[in-house]
User: What shape does this take?
Amino acid sequence: MAGNDFERTTTTTLTEDSHSEFTDLPIPCIDCAQNFIWTAGEQAFYRDKELLNPPKRCKDCKKAKNRRLEAIELSKLTGKRIRIEVQAECATCSTVTTVPFYPCQGRPVYCRACFLQMSTNGTSIIH
Assistant: This one.
């Protein structure tokens, strides 16, 4: 047991001193498109835990994502359907709109006016 405690203490000391090899990096959030700072300490934590990918979401968007996942799980357990409204930016006119689904990464979201205009013009909406 004593050997394990020593290893943990040594590892903690090494990671605290190794923060200087990292610098704070701005990363754009995939949900809100705002830059957030990935701190040197967070980078050292990722390295120590052997996590390969940097974070994709800012702290607020990560919390919102976790709440969405909890709501979906609760809906599955209770059998009750939950109506949702998610704010998204229209891919055509950049208007902020609400949609009744969680947008997928990389897929465009359209406001009602642009969606109707595309569907009446015969333009393909599915990409």
About this structure: Residues 57 and 63 are 9 Å apart (CA to CA).
